[in-house]
């Protein structure tokens, strides 16, 4: 695989006003397109506060206000949009869902967060997504913008089996909209992104909300792009920003030829 791919990671400060969140998301996507990006990526739960009890209140059926906006933006700006995630209502269930649109505004697919974030870290983060959300059941791999990529959401990145399943389906890039907090972020964010890149010899994009003073759940920020060798290509700080990065896709083949770990897998032993 060769050629370059430019990606815009929209690290926006999410507030408790959906209209304001959508306005900022639209402005960032438009700016990414203006800067020549082929793909724009939004963060996890970019249209609402990251609070489990609020997800049903903000949830939308498809098509809804947020997804219609993303489809229009993708067509208008001629850019692929990985729509971070939003609370999606489907019948009696609410999912943490990423909607992906191509540069004509067509829906390419959706990823419903497979692993729900139910944790109780002593003197740290306490969160239980399963109180209001239902887990997804599918691996999501899509071809758009000149590359085949997989999509996971936040906690999904901790599960090596899921990343490898996306690689086995042909993904050369893994995109994780996420909202790591101030406890797990400093400890594990960069480590996990680099680990999944090295394990699977792919590019990794982590798209996070900015740290937003005054909100209940403080996101870590630090949106990031990592290459197949584990090198950090770009990383944001904590504040709201559009982070752009250009991926040299030839690096994938180079790394896989020089260190052929995927060829050396012993599936006869593992299974």
Structure description:
There is one protein chain. The chain is α/β, with parallel strands linked by helices and 271 residues long. It has one domain: Nitrilase/N-carbamoyl-D-aminoacid amidohydrolase (4-Layer Sandwich). Helix content is 27%, strand content 27%. It has helices spanning 18-34, 55-58, 65-77, 160-168, 184-200, 250-258, 267-270, and strands spanning 4-11, 39-41, 80-82, 86-90, 93-101, 107-112, 118-120, 126-128, 141-144, 147-151, 173-177, 203-207, 224-226, 232-235, 241-248. Strands 1, 2, 3, 4, 5, 6 and 15 form a seven-stranded mixed beta sheet that branches. The chain has a six-stranded mixed beta sheet with strand order 9-10-11-12-13-14, covered by helices on one side. Helix 1 (18-34) runs parallel beside helix 3 (65-77). It is globular, with a radius of gyration of 17 Å. The mean pLDDT is 96.
Primary descriptors:
alpha/beta; 27% helix; globular; six-stranded mixed beta sheet; Nitrilase/N-carbamoyl-D-aminoacid amidohydrolase
Q: What secondary-structure arrangement, pairings included, does this model have?
A:
Blueprint (H helix, E strand, L loop, with lengths): L3 E8 L6 H17 L4 E3 L13 H4 L6 H13 L2 E3 L3 E5 L2 E9 L5 E6 L5 E3 L5 E3 L12 E4 L2 E5 L8 H9 L4 E5 L6 H17 L2 E5 L16 E3 L5 E4 L5 E8 L1 H9 L8 H4 L1
Parallel strand pairs: 1-2, 2-3, 10-11, 11-12
Antiparallel strand pairs: 1-15, 3-5, 4-5, 5-6, 7-8, 9-10, 12-13, 13-14
Helix pairs in contact: 1-3
Structural class: alpha/beta
**CATH homologous superfamily placement:** Carbon-nitrogen hydrolase
Write the H/E string, N to C: EHEHHEEEEEEEEHEHEEEEHH
- Examine the coordinates and then state which fold CATH places here, giving the name of the CATH topology: Nitrilase/N-carbamoyl-D-aminoacid amidohydrolase
- Please tell me what the overall shape is: globular
Which stretches are poorly predicted, pLDDT < 50 over at least 5 residues?
Answer: none
Percent in helix: 25-40%
Number of domains: 1
Number of beta-strand segments:
15
End-to-end distance, in Å?
30 Å
The percentage of residues in β strands lies in 25-35%
Write down the CATH class.
Alpha Beta
CATH architecture: 4-Layer Sandwich
- The helix tally amounts to 7
Average pLDDT level: 96
Main sheet, how many strands, which sense, barrel?
7 strands, mixed
Radius of gyration: 17 Å
């Amino acid at each position: 695989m060769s050629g370059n791919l430019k990606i815009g990671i929209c690290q926006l400060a999410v507030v408790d006003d959906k209209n304001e969140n959508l306005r900022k998301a639209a402005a960032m996507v438009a700016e990414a397109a203006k800067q020549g990006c082929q793909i724009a990526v939004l963060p996890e739960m970019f249209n609402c506060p990251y609070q489990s009890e609020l997800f049903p209140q903000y949830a939308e059926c498809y098509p809804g206000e947020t997804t219609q906006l993303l489809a229009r933006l993708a067509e208008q700006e001629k850019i692929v949009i990985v729509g971070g995630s939003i609370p999606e209502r489907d019948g009696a269930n609410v999912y943490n869902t990423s909607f992906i649109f191509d540069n004509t505004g067509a829906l390419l697919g959706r990823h419903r967060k497979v692993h729900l974030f139910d944790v109780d870290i002593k003197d740290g983060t306490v969160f239980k997504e399963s109180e209001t959300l239902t887990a997804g059941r599918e691996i999501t791999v899509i071809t758009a913008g000149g590359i085949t990529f997989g999509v996971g959401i936040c906690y999904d990145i901790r599960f090596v089996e899921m990343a490898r399943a996306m690689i086995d389906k042909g993904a050369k890039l893994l995109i994780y909209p996420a909202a790591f907090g101030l406890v797990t972020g400093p400890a594990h964010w960069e480590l996990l992104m680099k680990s999944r890149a090295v394990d699977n010899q792919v590019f990794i994009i982590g798209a996070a909300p900015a740290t937003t003073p005054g909100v209940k759940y403080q996101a870590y920020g630090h949106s990031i792009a990592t290459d197949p060798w584990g090198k950090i290509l770009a990383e944001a700080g904590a504040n709201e920003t559009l982070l752009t990065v250009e991926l040299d896709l030839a690096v994938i083949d180079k790394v896989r030829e020089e260190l052929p770990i995927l060829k050396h897998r012993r599936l006869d032993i593992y299974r």
